[in-house]
Amino acid sequence: MVAASAPVRHKRGFKVSKRWLPYVLSLPALLTCIGILIPFFTAVAYSLQRYRLSQPWAREWNWGQNYLNFMSDPAFWNTLKVSLSYAFLAVTLELLLGLGIALLLQRRTRFNNTVSIMLLMPLMTAPALAALMWKLMTNPGFGILSYYASLLGIEDMRWASSPATAMFTVVLVDIWVYTPFIMILLLAGLRSLPRQPFEAAELDGVPRWFVFWRITLPMLTPFLLTATLFRVIESIQQFDIIYAMTQGGPGDTLTVFQVEAYLNFFQSTNVGRSAALLMILWAITYFLSNLFIKNWLRLREKARGEA
Amino acid sequence: MSPVERVLRGLAITLVILFFMFPILWILLMSFQTNETILRVPPSMVFEPTLINYRSLITGKLQTAAGSLEIQFMRNLWNSLLLSTSSVAVGLLLGVPAAYAFARLKFRGSEDIAFTLLSFRFAPPLLVLLPLTIYFQQIGLANTYIGLIWVYQLIVLPLILWIVRGYFEDIPADVEYAYRIAGHSWFATFRKIALPLAKPGIAAAGLLAFIFAWNNFIFALVLASADKQPVTVGALAFVTASGIQYGQIAAGIVLSIAPTFALAIYAQRYLVEGLSLGAVKG
Amino acid sequence: MSLELTEVVKSFKDDLVLDGVTLTVDKGQTLVLFGPSGAGKTVLLRLVAGVIEPDAGRILIDGKDMRGVEPEYRGVGMAFQNFALFPHMSAMENIASPLTARQLGASAIRSGVDALARLLKIDHVLTHYPRELSNGQKQRTALARALAGQPELLLLDDPLRNVDAKLRFEMRLELPRLLKSQNATVVYVTQDYKEAMALGDRIAVMNHQGIQQYGTPEDIYMRPAHSDIARLFGDPVINLLDVVPERSANDVMIRLSGQPLTIGEHYAHTVSMPCVLGVRPEAVQFADEGTPGSFPVKVEAETPLNEKTVTLMLTAGNREIMMSRPAGTPGPATGTAHITVDLHNAVLFDHGTGTLIESSNSKTGLHGEVA
User: Fold this and answer.
1) Are residues B27 and B103 both part of a single domain?
2) Gap from B200 CA to chain C (nearest CA, Å)
3) pTM for this structure?
4) Contact yes or no for A240 and B217 at CB 8 A
5) Rounded CA gap, A137 and A147, in Å?
6) Would the CB atoms of C86 and B174 count as touching at under 8 Å?
């Protein structure tokens, strides 16, 4: 009946034993990444050395000395303080703003969808270029923001070049770039919430602020947590915006971890201190990213389950 | 909704759009102006648009009061394109088979390895970059495209791996089994079943990886010198070089962000999923 | 092609799914794997197909050990419960997939697919993609794909599970003929006892990580090895009544609602043992008051089931008993009635373990004479 009585003839493809197959498939990716792990361990070694590029002859192991030095190093404490304030300010404001916008755009209308796509544009802008844009806008000569500030009676607003307003300015850029990230995550979260509790509350005439605090917010928590951790991890490492805008200045106003480490390495050629700074930053982000990954996995399971 | 609330909502949305869109609009307008109109006080929306900024960027000749100046901007744009495209190509080549292995052929240590790869995404990039500057000198990869493309895998690979893995996992195992039982090898099954069915995910991951690679700043800042720098780093140098040619800076920025905007609009369906590494479905 | 499984063990993580399964299917025979979901039926099929590997034990196809043999070299065909059609290929390409693997010429593939499509009545939808097919067409396409390679061993994983009742009924009639025409050895998984009875030369009842009973359909229906199996076969479900056999003057008897019924001397070993009597609802009948062996019951509810009428009744001890009789036969709808129970095809199970209690004389079952 079926003309398929020909014997099974198989193409001689390359044959890999079943056991080795997964390793063969993932090996290239792994090797590439091992190439990244080696420098990591080198950095660990550097952090335990007295090592200046300008004085290669004086290079020696000093074990924990770089770290111990930090205890009495005001520049280090300044770095820690600036990094944490930057992360705290940026993420808090982005969270509030992002949540607000997500709530505004919650309903699936064509207008809301268009707006949410428009709002993604800052996020698609390279942070370094965003900093440049804002640098132009805050230019004392022709910057539109400087002009508006003067209209408001704030003469001689020096934005990122003044220690008083530098932090405010870079945080503003950070907010401009990254609020859309939080907004879009929370928007997806809001739209994925089950409808019944809200419909029931509406039928019962529950006040809206109560619905928000007791239903919306608790159900949104996993999304809020993911967004927050993600952003804290990233903003505590912020480099692009700050470097492109002020290179850490004026003075040491904005010497966050990565900027300080970069300047230490390339300007004062102090490799040991630079590496030790980065190790401390790594420890902080490692702790946070473990938290994040756990929470993220739970969300991912859920997203996959619903799909 | 009460009328008062309606007005307040409208106001809030207007303010939001203004805050997020205004800088882009302002830079766009600026790119069509000459220095004279830019420097007017008070600033005005009314001006005669000119393409001179774009023309001088594209021809590479910058006319200033001090004379003619060579600019590298097109070179930067080309570098961005080359670095992002090749990084994504390499990332897909390495990442897609690995993602398949992680999704389908659960093997010893696969989860640990996948997480190690993911955690790279969150480590401070300078931690790896600083030692690499020294290593790259030693092994001759300093200031080469190959060296840069390799380092770009740090952001490209985890993204591709985790998004594509999710898409592979969404293919019912039975569909692949059915093809095997029909008499096809695993490789034929991978090519004829898994790849076509995960295609949207692969495309999305590729586009997003391209955007991230394009927007990257720190890798090239540390590892590349002028002739290999992408626009993100190049634009910064350009500011210093061109002095007060603000119109050209603005035009440069417009040219640099246009590709990612276009891709973002094209791939908007996948943005949420990609940005959250697959944790949230768009 | 014969199939032989010896002591096959499979677990996923800490979850033991198959605990030493041994099974033989002769060439050309259809074996039905029957059991509740989670009994490991599907896992067993996948092990045979080679898409997963057993932890221990041997699988022989045609006498050849299949350890390490990739699925594409096992020469089996398989249809999946959820069809598992290739969504990006047309019905035609789906069905052709076993033929393309053999690198047959285009015309040979075409004629092979056409013949099967005609046989399964899907020749008019061959160009459609799976998402454009109805459930019934999907199911037929999946079946055609499994058959296309003319496999000598055919694995069918509950292929009628996801189609509607009408179609299931049609296919139940069509399938036996189709399977016989293929001359293949078939392993057929189902959760539907009627399908199992209709299709199986042999039935293996799977439960608790293993095979609980193996036999012909008649064997399993008439002499279920366990009260759980008795419950799975038959609709409405078998009546299970607690009884304690006792010795009467010259026989062994049980009491149903106080009414003594002898069960025969060959059940002497059950005396004083708590037992469960399994009586099919068909063996329960209305009787006039005073009929020997009859006892009164209260009629609780009545409902039609297919071509039968099912009546739920309560005995004097408030225990439920179910009767099934051809629809249209008269009977009191409510109130009190009298019934007799025919014990000839009834079975006795151990109350504690639920296992079948054999008569000491293998030729005779329960007597069921009025004491």
Assistant:
1) no
2) 13
3) 0.83
4) yes
5) 9
6) no
Q: How many CB atoms lie within 10 A of CB B237?
A: 16
What is the tens place of the pLDDT at every residue in B20-70? 999 999 999 988 988 778 877 777 777 788 888 888 888 877 666 666 667
Nearest CA of chain A to the CA of C73: how many Å? Answer: 8
If contacts are CB pairs under 8 Å, which of residues 6-35 in chain A contact chain C?
A: 6-11, 18
Task: Give the pLDDT of residue C362.
Answer: 62
Nearest Cβ partner for A3 among C73, C75, C112: C112
Contact state of C112 with A10 under an 8 Å Cβ cutoff? no
Q: Are residues B15 and B146 in the same domain?
A: no
Tokens representing B157?
């690979």
Q: Which amino acid is at B203?
A: A
Q: Which residues of A touch B224 (CB under 8 A)?
A: none
**Which of C191, C223, C255 is the C-terminal boundary of a domain?**
C223
Where residue A3 falls among pLDDT bands split at 50, 70, 90?
Answer: very low
Give just the sign of the alpha carbon dihedral A138, A144, A145, A147: positive
Tell me which residue range forms the domain holding C103. Answer: 3-223
Instruction: Mark yes or no for CB contact C88/B196 under 8 Å.
Output: yes
Spatial distance between the Cα atoms of A271 and A274, rounded to a whole number of angstroms:
5
**Which residues in chain C touch residue B105, judged by CB atoms under 8 angstroms apart?**
none
Q: End of a domain among C199, C223, C247?
A: C223
- Does residue C339 sit in the same domain as residue C258? yes
**Same domain, yes or no: C112 and C180:** yes
- B136 plus B220 within the same structural domain: yes
Q: Are B164 and B205 in contact (CB under 8 A)?
A: yes
Domain check: are B50 and B82 in the same one?
no
> Do the Cβ atoms of B156 and B87 come closer than 8 Å?
yes
Distance separating alpha carbons of residues B60 and A7, to the nearest angstrom: 67
Q: What is the pLDDT of residue A5?
A: 40
Q: Specify whether the CB–CB gap between C99 and C150 falls below 8 A.
A: no
What is the ipTM for the molecules in this complex? Answer: 0.89
pLDDT tens, residue by residue, A123-180: 999 999 999 999 888 887 778 888 888 888 777 778 877 888 889 999 999 999 999 9
* Chain A residue with minimum CA distance to C113: A2
Domains in chain A: boundaries: 75-306
Same domain, C15 and C69: yes
A29, A100, A144 member nearest B43 (Cβ) = A144
Preceding omega of A56 cis (within 30 degrees of 0): no
C70–A10 CB contact, under 8 Å: no
pLDDT at A4 over 60: no
Separation CA A21–CA C92 (nearest Å): 31
Is residue B64 assigned to a domain?
Answer: no
Q: Are both C179 and C69 inside the same structural domain?
A: yes
Residues 86-125 (B) with a CB less than 8 A from some CB of A = 93-95, 97-98, 100-102, 105-107, 110, 113, 115-120, 122-125
* Fold category of A75-306 in CATH: MetI-like fold (1.10.3720)
The set of chains that have 3 or more CB pairs under 8 A with C is: A, B
Of A1, A6, A18, the CB nearest to C102: A6
**Alpha-helical segments (H) within A193-270:** 196-203, 208-211, 217-236, 240-246, 257-266
Contact in structure between A192 and B281 (CB atoms under 8 Å)? yes
Which two tokens mark B232?
Answer: 């993100």
Name the residue in chain B with its Cα closest to that of A271.
B130
- Choose, out of C104, C123, C183, the residue to mutate when testing the contact with A (most A CBs < 10 Å): C104
Q: Tell me the CATH number at B106.
A: 1.10.3720.10
